[in-house]
Amino acid sequence: MTIPEYNHLIHAIAASADRGQVIEDIRIYTNWVLVKTGRWSLSTIFRGMPGLEDKPGMDSWMGDWLGKPALESALELLSCKETLRRAVGMACLKSLLPVPTSIMAGNAVMMVEAAAARVPTCFIGYFREAAEWREMGRPVNIVELFPRPGDIHWNDAGAVLAEAQIVLMSGLTVVNETLEAVIQRTPNAQVRVMMGPTVPPSPVFFDCGLDLLGVTLVSDWTLMARYAELGGGSIAYSPPGALEKINLVREGGRLCERLKELAGETR
User: Fold this and answer.
1) Which of 40, 57, 144, 256 has its CA 20 to 30 A from that of 23?
2) pTM tops 0.90
């Protein structure tokens, strides 16, 4: 399995983007970016990432991008190594991608809950459910670049990643260019999931070894904007009705059967 280099991956995702839109609005908050082209879309601002730059706040003006062709702007911003510009670029690109019609509603993480109670599971990035399941004594590990108590640093996670049968990762693996490393370090994974507010709704990821994409869409941008204005961090606590979670699945029937097997639900 060959994982495209970052720029090739971004261009592959962008192949299905709407080419007729311009950037209509950009909203920047402590933890989030909202961008409007034909519709509003969301991305997290990831700060302190190795390989990316956090420029001083005085160099944060993004108003010059308003009115510019959205796809070309998204690709230029995503090629930049600066955190803010890459976040705006990802939100912009997401807003241009078609919303898939063949989807499964609901929270992607809950689809693997029964299986994660039985088999070694790794979350790459912090998720509230992961911490709760780990506290319950389930075979769950959290791998982080900035570990909290109980987490494992990415550099020290070789053993738990190698034995993991279920791997769940955030969209940060795209933004910080670690997707290829995640795939290589999880050779025994039976199910790989990418989920969260930065994940683009693109089937391109299925060719990279992923089985399920948990995508977050903006349903009511005013609710989400107010939450972000007040410092809201986790989408788990976003206002009801602000966001919608959908799932893109590669071979949905086969994935469901695999999860049942891992959960011990088949004979």
Assistant:
1) 57
2) yes
Q: Which residues have C-beta within 8 Å of that of residue 29, sequence separation ≥ 6?
A: 45, 225, 228, 229, 231
**Among 58, 75, 80, residue whose Cα is nearest residue 23:** 75
As a whole number of angstroms, the distance between CA 31 and CA 58 comes to 17
Could you report the per-residue pLDDT of 6-37, keeping only the tens digit for each?
999 999 999 999 999 999 999 999 999 999 99
Q: Give me the half-sphere count of Cα atoms (radius 13 Å) on the Cβ side of residue 191.
A: 31
Burial of 78 (0-12, 13-18, 19+ CB in 10 A): buried
Report the DSSP pairing between strands 32-36 and 25-28: antiparallel
Three-state DSSP at 78 gives: helix
Give, in order, the Cα–Cα distances in Å from 117 to each of 46, 138, 213: 30, 5, 20
Its sign, for the CA torsion 51, 199, 77, 208, is positive
Beta strands 152-153 and 140-144 are parallel
Burial status of residue 48 (CB atoms within 10 A of its CB: 0-12, 13-18, 19 or more): exposed
What stretch of H or E contains 40?
strand 40-44
Structure tokens at 130: 């992961």
> Token pair for residue 83?
């955190």
Q: Beta partners for 170?
A: 195
